[in-house]
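FORM 7B: Structural annotation worksheet

SECTION A. Query
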Amino acid sequence: MSLGLRLYLAAARRTNGAQSPDTANRLARPAGKLVWLHISHAPDVSFVQGMIQQLAEDLTEVSFLITSPANLKIETSFQDGCDQPCLHIPPPDESPKDAAAFIDHWRPSVAIWTGTVLRPALLLETHAQSIPLLMMNAQSQANINGEPRLSRGIIRDMLELFDHILADHESTKNILVRQGAPYRKTLIGEPVEDTTPTLFWDDRDRDEMAQVLAARPVWLAAFTNEVEDALITNAHRVAMRLSHRLLLIIAPKDAARGNALAQSLTDQGWLVAQRSLDQEPDEQVQILIADTDDEMGLWLRLAPVCFLGNSLGVGATGSAPAAAAALGSAILHGPNTRDFHSRYARLDAAKAARLVQDEVELASAVQDLLAPDKAAAMAHAGWEISTSGAEAMERTMALVYDALNQSEVA
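SECTION B. Predicted structure
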């Protein structure tokens, strides 16, 4: 153990932070094997969600525990699509005492650490209890509390604890090895970030909606926020000059906005239908408000072009693009995609997505992609990335299965 790590732990012992009762004592541990997944950053959420759903399908008697920092806002419900217990709580305070209480209570069968933000006290206790420890989705240099140079000795000590480290690229592996990760335990896999499970849709609903649309050109604006409403509708107005039958489907990030959005657009002179009211987008309707839950898969299947919202305007952070890529929709997005930056960068580089800076560029892109061959080329590129992500997930899952097979039922 390095001097830096000994000093770090000594300081942690003196903090004596008050632990949240939910993290170790209030919730009961589910019986049987428990997979613990720790999330450090928002971009790891879809990876963890995909892993849980894959494990839940294959191993019906395994339960899940997800930890993420209390200051990390996560809107995803990991229990959705998972019949087994799936608990989401903050991690313990970063002190040896709290870490030991956490591990003693939950007794995970395997620990999956996503990303490269390290918590020394918690990792040390996990290793001390002989719990298989895997680092997944490593895309950058390792750090402690956002400080990669806090102590090189501490980081080296931590990286040596992992049974396997899965880096996204050769360059990431080289960085981690230089920081102290064991070379033979640090593996390379295709990026596994685009692993959001394919969204469900009912073929009957799709067929019925396709019949109503009667071959009308359609584009989708998904996961939109209020700031983007005017930008999107202005772009639609311009795009309609090229195709007057063009239908815009708006699926707001918050479906509860549906009534207010429909009223606002109607007041502006738009002909609007509202899905939550079972109104159909007949030939006269210009905008369909898709304000229902669990139908995003349907809209992505119907629309060959989609703009992924929460990406234009101040404060936007982006929306996950994996589902759109998997379902064959050409992707447009704004510049503010902080939470999913690497995913969009990969899609943009593969010409599977296109960046638009404002409503003018959005209108131009929609008009350009009304040409079926152009939209199909982008959609195919996105599908190839989605497929490679699925293959990468299979390789990742193999490491998890091996670790579970080595562990004993608690």
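SECTION C. Observations
The chain has two domains: 3-189, 203-388. The domain at 203-388 is CATH 3.40.50.2000 (Rossmann fold).

SECTION D. Sign-off
Analyst initials: ____
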